[in-house]
Each structure stands twice: as C-alpha cells, then as structure tokens.
Amino acid sequence: MPNHIVFLMCVQIITTLLVGWGAAVAFLGLLKKKPEKGPSDPKHRFAVVVCARNEEKVLSHLLKSLAEQDYPKDAWHVYLLADHCTDGTALLAAKFPFVTVYERNDGPESGKGAVLAWGIAKILREKADTFDALMTFDADNVAKNDFMSRMNEHLNKGNQLVQGNRLAGEPYRSLITKWYASYWPSYTILYSYPREKLGLSCFLTGTGFVVTKELLETYGWSTNSITEDVEFAFQQCLRNDRTSFCVDAVSYDEQPSSFSVMMRQLARWCTGSYQILYRYFGKWREAFKKHPSIRLFDNLMLLLVGPSSSIQLIATIILNIALALTPGMKTMQLMQLIMFLLGYLGGIFAGFAFPRYFGVKCRKLMPAAFFFPVFLYLYTLCSIYSFIFPQKKWKPIAHEGLRDEQEEYDVLDFSKEFQSKLNKKR
Fold first, then answer.
1. Position with higher pLDDT, 298 vs 420
2. 274 and 386 in contact (C-beta within 8 Å)?
3. pTM for this structure?
4. Secondary structure of 188-200 in HEC code, one letter for each residue
5. Which terminus of the chain has fewer Cβ atoms in its 10 Å neighbourhood, N or C?
6. How many angstroms separate the CA atoms of 269 and 305, rounded?
7. DSSP letter string over 109-155?
8. Distances from the Cα of 239 to the Cα of 194, 197, 219, 295, angstroms
C-alpha cells in the first residue's frame, strides 16, 4: 500500500479516536441512572441578568415567562443590561416592576462578554447583599415556569456553576430551525447530560445558566474570546471546579431561521473554540501537570472536537481521491463508503430520536432530520473556514421572538397584575 495512503489512514484513525472519546463518555454516561434532585430549600435569591441590544420586539416574552415562575416572587429580581440600544428596549423593560434597567452607552461594542463583565461588576458593587446567585438569559429566551426551582435544587446540591437545558423554541419555522431542533437535544444527550452523570464538567451554552455570588466575588467575570460562555466554563475547570448541568431546568432559545445567519453563528462558535485553545492550552498543560484528572482531560477533548472533525474530514476527502486514483483499492473504497453511510445513518437517528425525547414532533421535523448530517458537515466546514479566516468581531443577530402570531397582551396591565401578586406575597 502506498505510503501516502497509509499516512492518511493513520490521520483518519487518530482523529476518529479523538472524536470517539466523546462517544465513549456519552455511552458510559447514558448507562448511569438519573441523578437525584437536590432539596427544594433553602431558596436562593437570584439576580437575573439579561443582556439586550435592540430587543424591543422579543423582550416582553422572556419577562412574562419569568413572572410566571413557580418561585417566590420576592426571591428574584431582573437586571436588564441595555447595551447601546437605539430602540425602546430600556423603556419597555422599565414598565415591569421586577426589572431594573442599566443602560450602557459607552465602551466598545465587542459582544456579550464585555457587557456581562460590566454588568456583573456593577451588580456586585451595588446589589451584592440582595442575591445569592446570578442567573443569565438572552432577551429572546422563554423559560419554563419551574426553571428557577430546578436551578435552586441544583445549587442546594453544592454546585456553584450550573447550565440549564437549552432547547430550540418554535422549531418548525424553517429547515434551519428544524436542524437546531435536532442539534440542541443531541448536544444535551451526547455531551452535557452524560458529563453531569459522570461528575465531569460540561460547557456553558451562552444562556440559561446560574453562577453563585461567591464564585463571582472570588474570580469575577473576565473573558476575552467571542464565546465567553465556553471560556468561563473552561476557566473553572482549570481551577479544579466544574460546570454542572440541570436537564430539568429548560429554557427555549430562538434559533437562526436563515442559512446565512446560521453559518455566521457556527463560525463564531468555531472561532471562539480556537481562541480558547490558543490562549489556554499552556495553562491547561500546567494545571494537568500539577493535578492530572479525567475532568481536565475531558474538557480539552471537548474543545478538540471541532479541530479533530476538521482534520478528519480533510483527510477523508484526500484519502478517497487517492484511493480512486490508485489501482487495486476497490475494497478500501468500499470500506470508506460503508463508514460514511454508517455515520450518515447515525446522524439521521440523532436527528429524529433525540428531539423526540424532549417532546418535539418528529413528523414535523421531516425532511430536515434526514438531512441533519448535512448540518453537521456544514458545522465542520465552518470549523475549517474559521481556522483560516477567524471572525474578528462579534456581530449581533436580529430576533423575531418566540411566540404565536396571534398572542397579544398589554404590558402595563400585566405589570400591574404582577405587582398586585407581589404585594400580597409580602
């Protein structure tokens, strides 16, 4: 067999083993029983932080879902960080009695990480005695009415950083949203939930997470990448702590509905992973040398999924071209085809089975679920592109809102009703 084919096969095998680590973790994690819930008392006080830039169209739906939480009304308060807004976002939020608006009009427009750092520092400085943990949402989210209760139980188990279960809201809008409707349950079942069961550390996914005041007062919020969520979680793992995962704390997130926005979002995620690898690998190596652990090793493997998949895809394409041009390689070509088909069928299975677990109707996902592997290949192509042409600047994504077209309610009337219930509670 020619040397170049042997080399390409070795690259393919090595990258498959790296990706296979995640498969092994998923398999072992799914074999374990569901962790027991934590106690419902004591009730932690939450400072709910919402970053918003021109989110007037969607914000009220998040605030309404928070007002309907089955959690004591006097145990949480919302702090809206209105970042360089030019619409009525701040005015709308101010109509809700449980919202304090902080407007940020100075400083760079460099993404949510900078806004969070500014807002968290301000809240700690001015309101530190009013809360025990900080909860974050994006303005386009909607939280299930037991979200705070489930997060409180998880904190009562001793966790300091907890990621909730992020699922796609209104998943049937387009082919793209249907892909995300398959992607997020797959991420939960194959990545986050198994790591929770095994006591490993998952990654934050940008929204719907909780961090204790104690952790923030100790380390603050200091991130520099365009994926500040993953970076913060990786920082905690380097400090020998972990990011926990609460599968029962569900929030729904509006997904991109167009191809161009999807590719831009995927490219941002990939660029952020490369930034974290570049900036933190030395620190990871030092931490692993001092305190070797499966948790640290696994967190690095999570970051390497994108690069490994990229190298594997490139090696596979070149290998198949080489096999086609080399006489006597029919058997090897057949093996490559079988591997491709098995992988594609596995993607279709994930596209149908995992959303079903969280109540998404599989019939409505067709034909998107049959082409879910295409989404995964596009994700890998974005990883390759981002390595060569990294995103240099965070770009906001416009939102339409998670709601039925006919749903309407008066914000002022709703606010008065909420205030009345709060006064009775007190």
1. 298
2. yes
3. 0.89
4. HHHHHHHHHHHCC
5. C
6. 12
7. ---HHHHHHHHHHHHHHHHGGG-SEEEEEETTEEE-TTHHHHHHHHH
8. 21, 21, 10, 11
Task: List, for residues 221-267, the tens digit of each pLDDT value.
Answer: 999 889 999 999 999 999 999 999 999 999 999 999 899 999 999 99
Cα 410 versus chain centre, distance: 32
- Other C-beta atoms within 10 Å of 314: how many? 16
- The amino acid sitting at 137 is F
Cα distance between residue 75 and residue 45, in whole Å? 5
Structure tokens at 24: 């092994």
Number of C-alpha atoms within 13 angstroms, CB side, residue 47? 28
Residue 93 phi, psi (nearest 5): -60, -35
Query: Can you tell me whether residue 282 is helix, strand or coil?
Result: helix
pLDDT tens across 60-102, in order? 999 999 999 999 999 999 999 999 999 999 999 999 999 999 9
Closest CA to 80 of 71, 89, 72: 89
CA 352, CA 365: separation in Å to the nearest integer? 8
CA torsion 391-202-402-255 (nearest 10°) is 40
Instruction: Average the pLDDT over 161-173 and give the result.
Output: 92
Provide the CA 353 distance to its chain's centre, in angstroms. Answer: 20
Instruction: Determine contact, residues 162/151, Cβ cutoff 8 Å.
Output: yes
- Which two structure tokens, joined as six digits, stand for 235? 């920082």
Cis ω before 367 (30° cut-off from 0): yes
The string of DSSP letters for 211-239 reads: EEHHHHHHH-----SS-HHHHHHHHHHHT
Q: What is the DSSP string of 52-101?
A: ESS-TTTHHHHHHHHHT-SS-GGGEEEEEEEES--SSHHHHHHTSTTEEE
Residue whose C-alpha is closest to residue 79's, from 57, 65, 96, 58: 96
One-letter amino acid at 126 equals: E
CB 149 within 8 A of CB 76: no
pLDDT over threshold 70, residue 179: yes
Helix ranges (H only) for 326-402 are: 330-357, 362-365, 372-388
